[in-house]
Write a structure and sequence with these properties.
34% of the residues lie in helices and 21% in strands. It is of the alpha/beta class. InterPro entries: Alpha/beta_knot_MTases, RlmH-like, tRNA_m1G_MTases_N. One of its GO terms (biological process) is rRNA processing.
């Protein structure tokens, strides 16, 4: 059974503000369930430098929750047709999704989300029936139809299009930042 889409609606008042108008996470200082996370990236073998950065953030995030980093090879069946490639990648990703996962796809047309909103989203996921948060970074042609339909939320990391390896690094840093916000630690500002 999929987690309902309405559970992931992000209203403009998602976070509160203090007297100076700075955004605040609604869970800062409160106990938040350490919901497991999985990051799935579709792409080629990672550059060594990128992998070192991903490993560094994975290790940091492990202080807050378990996190898996999964790389799915782009174009797994070596299709010459772009639609077939997207479909093959789509099947490979959706096969890794459990029915009680909260699925977030990264997409250039997704919702704009600040760091505090991501922290709130993680806190919200921790108090629902979700067993795990799953973040999906698409391949060179984006996400397939099945994954888009299954996704509970679509977010963008930037208004600019990012290479999947850069998007992964930005996502990992933001996940770490979100946890430090949730725990009231000094990393954020």
């Amino acid at each position: 059974m999929a987690i309902p889409l309405i559970a992931c609606h992000i209203p403009s008042s998602f976070t509160s503000s203090d007297a100076q108008g700075e955004r605040k996470c609604k869970y800062t200082g409160h106990s938040v369930r350490a919901i497991p996370m999985r990051v799935i990236t579709v792409g080629k073998k990672r550059d060594r430098g990128i992998q070192l950065i991903v490993d560094e953030y994975t290790e940091k995030i492990w202080h807050y929750c378990t996190i898996d980093d999964v790389l799915i090879r782009s174009n797994p069946k070596n299709a010459r047709d772009v639609k077939a490639q997207i479909e093959d990648e789509d099947i490979a990703v959706t096969n890794l999704i459990r029915s009680d996962d909260w699925v977030v796809i990264l997409d250039e047309r997704g919702k704009d989300m600040c760091s505090e909103q991501l922290a709130d989203f993680i806190g919200d996921a921790g108090i629902t029936g979700a067993s795990r948060l799953l973040f999906c970074v698409g391949g060179p042609y984006g996400h397939g139809r099945q994954l888009r339909q299954r996704a509970n939320l679509s977010i963008k990391l930037s208004s600019m299009v990012l290479n999947h390896q850069i998007a992964l690094v930005v996502l990992m840093e933001q996940l770490y930042r979100a946890w430090t916000i949730l725990k009231g630690q000094k990393y954020h500002h």
